[in-house]
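Quick one: structure for this chain?
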Amino acid sequence: MSFNKLKIFFLLLLAGNGVAQAFSIGGDNGAAFHGSIQADVLFPEEDEAIETGKYDKKILFNTYADLNMISKYVDAGVRVEFMKWPLPGYENDFAGWGVPHIYAKGRYKGFELTAGDFYEQFGSGFILRTYQERSLGIDNSIRGGRLNVTAVKGLKLTVLGGVQRRYWDWKKSSQVYGGDAEFYFQDYFSRLRDKGINWNFGASYVLKHEDDQDIFIPGTDYRLNLPTNVSAFDLRSQFQKGDFSLLGEFAWKGQDPSFDNDYTYGKGTAVMLSATYSKSGLSALLQAKRSENMSFRSQRMMSGTSAFLNNMPAFAYLHTYALPALYPYATQAAPGEWAFQGSFAYMFKRRTAIGGKYGTKVKVNFSYIRGLDHKAPVNIIDGIVAGTNGTKTSFFGMGEAYYHDVNIQIDKKWSKSVSQTFMYMNQMYNKSVIEGEGGNIHTNIFVLDTKWKIDKRFTLRNELQYLHTRQDEKDWVFGLLELSVAPYLMVTVSDMWNCGDTGTHYYNFGVAGNYGSNRLQLSYGRTRAGFNCSGGVCRYVPATRGFQVAYTYTF
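Got it. Here's what it folds into:
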């Protein structure tokens, strides 16, 4: 596609949105239209200092256009995607263009039927979670049918079936079927309602059917007998009274030899307990999870991020500051893990010794994750585990440390115009387990975030960050200045400097503007090679340098 054709494509998308917006405003038929355009564009430049490599194209981009119609009884929607030359870091199969998402939905008196492409999650997602995360290149939607029933008091029922999307492919040799039911006891028992108790119970079932394939034990002529049907169950219950909530969940998966578990026949399990407490000025969260062999794909031979049927959430704090996010944790679903997470926040009241004039908020977070105590199976021969039941573990046994993170954040307002956030973080990151090699990395990280509200329109924000480690690339420093001009403009200048080893600067200059439903961001600079993570799922992003354009339009 030539650059002129690319411009025509964008103009057509904009025109289509304009027509849809006009129709939604002027329509008297009870239907409303909404949608969006998103275009992320990079004009890459080669940079030997950060090892960008060579580029075959002068422009790389990911583009999406959504249009949805909503009415009282019928909804419908369509998405156009154009990623002929996708941004760096996306798998080769990600490239393409077309209409990968189209659906129609009808509802009447507690019954809702969807035909086409849809997303769904059962419980915490242990056995089924399909979703879209554009920054990671994930869109594992299901194409088929789904029925949601809420016509019965105290009961929510979902049944579905179809084939899963993987990039631009929908393998009919693999199908997914499932059902989920949630019961709300407070709708049946008045005593629970009188005492302010909400108590629900959920049960889910997922069946994956996949045709048999010719897979042999390495170095032999023995062909694996692969199950064509794999079942998974999930049971959960949540109890809430006032400020306290408790959730327990258990999942089980049948024999599922796959790329992730070296084609072994062990069953998968996951168990989680989560407790929360929250009231004015105080909140607490405690969670524990044990999972083993819970990688669940619709296509057993596929790798990458978009073939998963489920999602095992990472029990690691999601950092937004640059240096604390330098070593993000990715859930180890196939071998399994023990994971613990806690968060405690307290607001010291105003006009106290610690609270001061405006109050002080203190938050402490911790994550601690270890592997399981895997022992080699008794029938292993010459180091080959394919065809066996996999490694043995004890339920409470723990293996090597994968990750830990302890951080404290203090939010302090000094005056009506000046506030600061201070954070200290201690981290251990097992790079060998998470990325394949590199050993254990121990870091100490300091962050100071200062915001100065100059007047009603102008706000200046400054970040100073320092990461100290004796491993990997050693110490880092990060600095940022951000000027906001409400409500239209934001200008940023930042630099991430590896002062401990390479001396490399990752500078960035950017300006972002908002007007009505439009947002345009222009930036130029370097991006460090590393992992972009969300919810324990990660995508490797290579180093880049160049001019970037990000545009979104919503209506």
